[in-house]
Amino acid sequence: MSASSYSGCHGTSLSGALPDRQNQCRVSPHGAAMQDGCFSDVGVVRFAAVTDGLSQTILAAEKSTTSFQFLDPVAPGVLESYGWWYIGDDGDTLFSNCFPPDEHAQVGLGAGEAIVWSASSGHLGGLNLLMCDGSERFIKNSI
What pLDDT does 105 receive? Predict the structure, then answer.
């Protein structure tokens, strides 16, 4: 077993669309509407549903587990707790583009949610993305 260094794009929201016991184990309409990434809790996203075009839509990105080192001084053990793909937790397998790339480098300590949810890399100035058409792009942190 090992940590993953890639994650799927969850979209612009941190909101999950998990079945709710209060709603007869169905996903709430609000939760479903918040799912706008290629990987979500709602269901399969078909390429035909990608209205911005496959070459303009992010499928996956780098996710460096070394970014969790920034959290260890304030929450010891975070580095060992996150980034394990096999666990399947949202923060381990997905990223949200509601945070800029490499957010940990920009906000510093105390920004746990941003560190766990942002795409990240060990590259200076940016990271690699996989687009839905299969192409790869390097984007700058300043995007």
Answer: 58
Q: How far is residue 110 CA from its own chain's centroid?
A: 19
Count structural domains, the chain.
Answer: 1
Measured CA angle at 2 (ends 15, 65), to 5 deg: 55
With respect to residue 38, please indicate whether it lies within any of the assigned structural domains: no
Question: What is the token pair recorded at 42?
Answer: 């709602």
**pLDDT single digits (tens) 88-140:** 666 678 888 888 888 765 555 446 677 778 888 888 889 999 999 999 999 99
- For residue 139, CA distances in Å to 54, 92, 120, 121, 126 come to 17, 21, 11, 11, 5
Look at strands 136-140 and 126-131 and give their pairing.
antiparallel
Inside any domain, residue 40: no
**Which residues on adjacent β-strands are paired with residue 55?**
none
pTM of the model: 0.76
- Domain span at residue 109 reads 6-14+52-140
When computed from its CA atoms, the radius of gyration of the chain, rounded to whole angstroms, is 15
Question: 94-96 and 6-11: which strand pairing?
Answer: parallel
Q: Residue 115 has which token pair?
A: 């560190």
